[in-house]
Every structure is written in structure tokens, then in C-alpha cells.
Amino acid sequence: MDAQARIKQIQERQTPFYYYDMELLRRTLQQAGEAAGRYGYRIHYAVKANYDPRVVEAVREAGMGMDCVSGNEVRMAIESGFSAADVVFAGVGKSDREIEYSLQQGIFAFNCESLHELQVIHQIASRMGKKARVALRINPDVDPKTHRHISTGKADNKFGISYTEVDQAIATLSELSSLEIVGLHFHIGSQIRDLQVFEQLCTRVNTIKTWFAQQGVVLRHLNMGGGLGINYDDPQAELIPDFARYFEIFHQHLAVEEGQTVHFELGRSLVAQCGELITRVLYNKTTALGGKIVIVDTGMTDLIRPALYGAKHKIENLTSTEGSETYTIGGPVCESSDIFAREIELPVTSRGDLLTMRSAGAYGAAMASRYNMRDLPGAVYSDQL
Ligand SMILES: *Cc1c(COP(=O)(O)O)cnc(C)c1O
Fold this sequence. Notes:
Layout: H1 3-11, E1 17-20, H2 22-37, E2 42-46, H3 53-61, E3 65-68, H4 71-79, E4 87-89, H5 96-105, E5 109-112, H6 115-128, E6 132-139, E7 161-162, H7 166-173, E8 179-185, H8 196-214, E9 221-223, H9 243-253, E10 261-266, H10 268-271, E11 275-286, E12 292-296, H11 305-309, E13 315-317, E14 325-330, E15 339-346, E16 354-357, E17 378-381
Parallel strand pairs: 1-17, 2-3, 2-10, 3-4, 4-5, 5-6, 6-7, 6-8, 8-9, 9-10, 12-14
Antiparallel strand pairs: 1-11, 11-12, 11-16, 13-16, 14-15
Helix pairs in contact: 2-9, 4-5, 5-6, 8-9
The chain binds pyridoxal-5'-phosphate.
């Protein structure tokens, strides 16, 4: 369908809604799968980025596993047809119920984030007469050079077992007979655009895994997490991230032993660019200082990233091309942080125009809320227009 026909279709829908380009999603998944497959790497999709059922179905069709961070995500993965053997479960605060359910299902591994959690999983597993497969999530103290709210692998973050505690972790493990340690897990942050960071991660992991081997711990799996960033400034220039380069870095810098498998947990890089948030302009107004404000019918309840992390989504006017003005784009929610962009250039924009916020397929719909009792945003798929 050409762009004009698509806009015509979109114009008839009730806004706001997420629009998913299913063809782009499939191509992205395929390229990621191929690039990982070159080295025998396995991808688990970090489903917290977007749990839309059509997105999840495309991921399953692409043959990837799932990376879950709650019991409900584990349940959804299994109910959507993923094999429990392809599900990993991470998170600093797994509840007893979530652990029990995941043990019953026989998931591939728990990514454990503290010594205390190891003890609790051991207790629950032994009560159930099960053996829990665990990977130790080690905080490697690598600076991902990203926003501090999405940085997870520095020494002072709440995530992972601190490298000063690994000694104790190993000592503890020998007493926790209901645990089977299957590997190590790392995830240092999100929206990482400087690929050298992954090189540093590999170097750090090589040291840590050698140390484990010296202690006699056999590591069958290395899970390197996710975090590959995408181009928010100019999505059209990079609709599909450079997965080939990303995996090549690990191939070049990560020392993998015979029989060891390497896993990844990609979220954003797989689904961000296929999604956009479509909204309609409600009002134009001018501040006392002369600033022009455009109020749209979508708000931080539909896409919270700008309010939460100061994230910038590229905004385009789909229905006007005339002239140029400087606008601040705000939503209807009663919060001053409900602003999508400040002082951006757009064609002359007025009531009824359709705007799109690009690169919204990851951490968009999945983070939507009903604050102000607003409706949750809908979803429209390119192959259903
Ligand atoms: C969020 C998360 C991911 C995915 O991160 P992206 O930046 O979206 O690729 C991977 N692993 C864990 C443990 C996570 O919490």
C-alpha cells in the first residue's frame, strides 16, 4: 500500500493508536535471527518491550525464545505456544508464587539477582521436589553510557549479584542442593549506541568466567542480555539495527569454550522501529511568551518515555506539508511532564491533522496506563488495513 492510501485508511480510525508495520517486524526478526545464527547464538525476546499478541506471534514464528521479567510474562509465553525450555526468567523481585509457577512449568533458567534469591529458590524447589536451573546474574560494573534510568550494570545499580559477592555465591551454591547452576547472565542497560561498550562487556565477562572455571564451576551457557540501541533521531535511515555488526563484536571478543552456548535477550532493537503512535491534533494555543503549543489526543499514558526518561521520538505531520513553524507538542494529561517534544520544526499544524511519533514499538504500548481514567491506546496492524 502506498503512503497516501495508508494515510487515508488511518484517517478513518479513532485515534490515538499504535500502528505496527508487520512486514518490517518480520524482516527485523529475520535479520537478527540470521546474524545470530551465523555464530550459533540464541535470541530470547525481552517481551517486556512489547507484549502485543501479534508481535509475540511473529517472534514465535521467527523461532526465538522468550526473556521474561514477571510470572505473568512466563505464563503468557507458555500460553502463546513457546516451549518452557525456551523461557528465561529475570528480575530482582521474583515472588514465591512466580517462582513456584515457573518451576512447575520447567523453564530453561532463572536469572538470579542476589544471594538471598538463590536461597529462596532453593527452598521452594526442594519443597516441591524439583531442581531449579539458575544462571547467576553478575553485575559486571560496565558503564553502558546511556540514560541513568536505563543503566543496569554499574556497581551501584540494584541489579545483579555484585562482583564482590561472587566468592560467597559459589560457597553458598554447594549447600543449595536443589539448584543447578547452568551459566552466567549479564545485562548492563538499554539503548546502547556505542558498540565499544559491548566490547568492554566481553572483556569483563572473559575475566569473570575464567574465575568461575578456576573455582570448578561448569558454565554451559553465557547470557549476554540485551541493550542494543536504535536510531530515534532518524529512524528512516536505520529501520533495522546493524545486527551483523553487533553479533560480530561478541564473536570477536567473547571467549567461548567448547560446548558453551551464548544467549542474548534483545527487546528494543527487535520491535522499536516497526511501531509508531498515531495521534490527532486537538488544539493550537500560544503561551504568554509567544511559544506555539500543539495539543494532541495522545498523552504520557500512551507513551511515557518522553516524560520518564526525557526520550525524544521523531514526530512527523502525516497530513500537512505546507510551511514551517516551531511547536511544543503536549498531551491532555494533567501533568506538566506530559510533553512529547519542545520547540520542534513541523509544517503548519492545525486541528484534525494526524501526527506520528516514530520508533514507538518498544516500551510504548507496554508501558501504557489508565491514569486520568484514559482509555488504553488501540493497535492497528499494517496487514489488517
Ligand atoms: C529489559 C531487559 C532486556 C532487554 O533490553 P533491551 O534494551 O530492550 O534490549 C534484556 N534482559 C533483561 C534482563 C532485561 O531486563
